[in-house]
Every structure is written in structure tokens, then in C-alpha cells.
Amino acid sequence: MAVTAAMVKELRERTGAGMMDCKKALGETNGDLDAAIEFLRVKGMAGADKKAGRVAAEGVIAIAISDDKKKAAIVEVNCETDFVAKGDEFKAFADEIAQLILNNGYTSNEELEKLTLASGKTLDETRRALVAKIGENMQVRRVEIVESANGEIGSYQHGEKIGVVVAMDSGNDTLVRDVAMHVAATKPQAISSADVDPAVLEKERNVLTEQAKESGKPMEIIEKMIDGRIRKFLEEITLLGQPFIKDPDQTIEKLLKAQSATVTRFVRLEVGEGIEKEVLNFADEVAAAAAAAKG
What we know:
The chain is of the alpha+beta class. The chain is elongated, with a radius of gyration of 25 Å. It has twelve helices and eight strands.
């Protein structure tokens, strides 16, 4: 059967695949539209599997919060280039994943991929189809669920690259958003000094001790110096010890006490943290995206 432009157009509308892929699929299936759809689906899955090993260090942070502000899901969804990350289709995909996690919970990526999206397709089927269409590896990298039984949850996003969720008791919408904005800017490691990982504290103490020994001062003086520097270190890395970005004259601890509020948990995710990525300029990203789309 001859493949017509109308057949190619209909297949493109139903699958979102490229024109040449649609033409090839129809040719391989003798013009059978349903068979061509299955051909593209299988081809897309194979293509997605081939791209799965490629570094995906760009992407977005998506956040979904329940209507009662008692529960939130925050997720990092990665792709290969910033060019794709800025696309509406990719961002909508990430937003739908966050909502899916909020509604269903999270145990593993394997279980998440089996869940069904609004389209009626599973997350894995949708991801593979998007990989086939856009030509980049896409993965759900990190997921966090935050709950607040006695307070409320707020969030702040700095573009699509940084997202923060804060759970707070006895606060209000403005305060919880201000604290979330502060966390986005300052990257605290813990809420208070009591929450700091002892290994982190011990490592810092050892470094400071070695530095102080070079001063030649007596050990009892060195120990006092170390204690003071550790206190300063804890102020810098803990949320409560940091000066509030909107009013550096008061700490977050004083800000919260003034409103009888307590932060019970925060999560800050930034796209690509801990991933070694190749540095490309924008022109190279566009060229890479165009080349990937062809192949």
C-alpha cells in the first residue's frame, strides 16, 4: 500500500513521532496504522534503552502540594541538555510526575514507572515515548515526600533548577515561603546544631585543629580557638543559626521565635547536584539536541 501524506499526518498526530519515523513505520507495516503505532512504540522503547546510559545532568525540580498543605512531593527529573529542560513538554512531564507521587506515594522508581498518568499510559511508557520523540535520556533521579501533621507545608522555586519544601508548625503562608526562599539561597545542611551529622562535625574539627596547631600556641589555647570556630561553623551551616536573608540583623531562630513557629523539616533539591557534567555552550547544546532528534 502506498503511504500518503494524510496517513503520515494522522500517525504523527496520534504518536507525536517525527515525520520520517512515521513514514518509515507505515512503510514497514504496509500502511496499517495500528501496526505502525506499535512499531513506533517498540522502536521508542529500544531507543530509550539505548540512551539510558547517557549522562542526564540537566532537568527541572517539580513540586506538588496537597490542598490542605499537609503533604508535598518534590522530585528531580533529568534530561541531557538545558535546551530540552526549558521545553514546556518536559516541564509538564515533570509536574505530572510530582503530582503522581503526591497522590500515590513513593517506594522505588520501578514501582513509580508502573503507575498510570492522566493519558492512560504508564509513566515508563510516557517517558520512553518522550525519549524517542525528543532524543535525550530522561530519568527520575531523586524523590522526597514531606508531611506535616500539625502544621503546614510551603515551597519556593528559583526558576526550575532549585526547589525547596519546608514543613512548619504554627507558621503562616508568608513565613513558610520566606524560610523556603532563605533555604534556597543559603543551602543549610541541617535545621539545628543537634541535627548535624557527627561525621561532618568531626571532620571540620580535625581540619581546624591542624590549622590551629600551625600557630604554635599552647594546646589549651588551641582548644578554645577550636570551640569558637566550631560554633561559628555551626551557625553557618544550620538553618537556625543563619542570618535571615531579608533581614541579616536577625537569625532564622529569632525570626521563628518571634512568631512562635518551628521548622520541622526542609528539603532542598538542585538540578544536577553531585553529577559530573560536560560543559557545553548554548550553541553546542542546540546542535546536540538537533543531532539527537535525528537519531
